[in-house]
Amino acid sequence: MFKKILIANRGEIALRIIRTCREMGIRTVAVYSTADRDSLHVRFADEAVCIGPPPSRQSYLNIPSIISAAEVTGADAIHPGYGFLSENAEFSQICADYGIKFIGATAEQINMMGDKATAKATMRAAGVPVIPGSDGLLESFEQGQQLSANMGYPVIIKATAGGGGRGMRVIKAEGEFEKAWNDARTESGAAFGNDGLYLEKFVEEPRHIEIQIVGDQYGKVCHLSERDCSIQRRHQKLLEETPSPIMTDELREAMGAAAIKGAQSIGYEGAGTVEFLVDKHGKFYFMEMNTRIQVEHPITEEVTDFDLIKEQIKVAAGVPISGRNYTPKLFALECRINAEDPANGFRPSPGKITNLHFPGGHGIRIDSHVYSGYVIPPNYDSMIAKLIVSGQSREEVLTRMKRALQEFVIEGIKTTIPFHIKLMDDPGFKSGLFTTAFLESFDFSTL
Ligand code: MV4
């Protein structure tokens, strides 16, 4: 087992990882920018190294600084958390070259899943259902137009280097094709330095359901059921739940088997997520694979009783998994509490938390790095807490979540709490019959 893990991240996920390391008897090294000098991850870790000024490029994305910190402190592994360097192939490779275990995917796997057209081709070859469309990248807009005419509109063009909605265009009719093509090409070229595009039939009002998987170094992969992430605004998830309200035992078995097959085909080791779109007929299609721990992993932990960070560390150290799949024993919901003003376009609201009180009681978990007096720096992600509620039924969880949200006190800044409170009373949300389009018609003006 590792003796010392460096955590190449900040905020709640850095704390989350430190907590598990402490329970496992593994020493921890925090790295921090000068903006995070007073952060809890710095105080809770056994050692801490300053790696640069506030901008991420010069600190949490600064590979030489982080590798130096690992060398100086004698860390034998690095946990990248989510975001930052968690899906950076170069960083994974450099860790390997320095003999430091990267707790995540190999450079090759990151490259393969990071290029969306390659990821799709890989999954299709493994027998995972994919959305009908172009075979790899489009060579010209004429080819795309021809294919779309054959498939029928609407279609969607996606940037192969994209993900999270960037460089995507939905096309409803042939006349829109050329402009959409040019716009997507320009946008993806500028954003990613890669203007490769591929085409798919557009799935209308789908649900976004992802399967949590864990693989070991011996070719075994298991799934830990699904998370429903259909409640998003502009590709930012705001709330996740498990089990999905539309899930059946049969669908879970089929999606779980597909996710395992896909992960096994690339020799995947560690925790990963396979994202699917589910259409209104209950047919599912591979969308993307995330080769990292995700923000919303705690809801899976609450319903399966696994510590996913512990699983990541164990498989990275060569411990085999049982290989058995898990179905939820409970219901769980996560609300992302962001320092944003939901009544004003979710505008960021950094600054000082002047008064703070966390909710508590049965079935409540809070993953957060903030405290009363903490100053939220403007340089990073605006998520300041995850409120995770579990219970015996979806109804119980919704009631408990509303109670917890009402108990939550955060003064000095605006947060997404009023949005979540309104959501808990929304008939469409309560019915469980929402799609990814749900928030497009939500009234944010009355928060
Ligand atoms: C789609 C789609 C419909 N049809 N692909 C959005 C993020 C990116 N990962 C892929 N996305 C979508 N791909 C086809 N063929 C609809 C979306 C989509 C979406 C997906 C999941 C969650 C929220 C979404 C919001 C808008 C569009």
TrEMBL record:
Stretches assigned to the Biotin carboxylation domain: 1-444
EC number(s) recorded for this UniProt protein: 6.3.4.14
Database matches in PROSITE patterns: ATP_GRASP (PS50975), BC (PS50979), CPSASE_1 (PS00866), CPSASE_2 (PS00867)
Pathway info: Lipid metabolism; malonyl-CoA biosynthesis; malonyl-CoA from acetyl-CoA: step 1/1
UniProt-listed GO biological process terms: fatty acid biosynthetic process
Lineage: Bacteria, Pseudomonadati, Bacteroidota, Cytophagia, Cytophagales
Domain ATP-grasp: 120-317
Gene3D superfamilies per the UniProt record, alphabetical: ATP-grasp fold, B domain
Function: This protein is a component of the acetyl coenzyme A carboxylase complex; first, biotin carboxylase catalyzes the carboxylation of the carrier protein and then the transcarboxylase transfers the carboxyl group to form malonyl-CoA.
Record keywords: ATP-binding, Biotin, Fatty acid biosynthesis, Fatty acid metabolism, Ligase, Lipid biosynthesis, Lipid metabolism, Magnesium, Metal-binding, Nucleotide-binding
UniProt entry tagged with the keyword Metal-binding: yes
Enzyme class at the top of the EC tree: ligase
Reactions mediated catalytically: N(6)-biotinyl-L-lysyl-[protein] + hydrogencarbonate + ATP = N(6)-carboxybiotinyl-L-lysyl-[protein] + ADP + phosphate + H(+)
Name of this protein: Biotin carboxylase
Subunit structure as annotated in this protein's UniProt entry: Acetyl-CoA carboxylase is a heterohexamer of biotin carboxyl carrier protein, biotin carboxylase and the two subunits of carboxyl transferase in a 2:2 complex.
Listed InterPro entries: ACC_Biotin_Carboxylase, Acetyl_CoA_COase_biotin_COase, ATP-grasp, BC-like_N, Biotin_carboxylation_dom, Biotin_COase_C, CPAse_ATP-bd, PreATP-grasp_dom_sf
Molecular-function annotations in GO: ATP binding; biotin carboxylase activity; metal ion binding
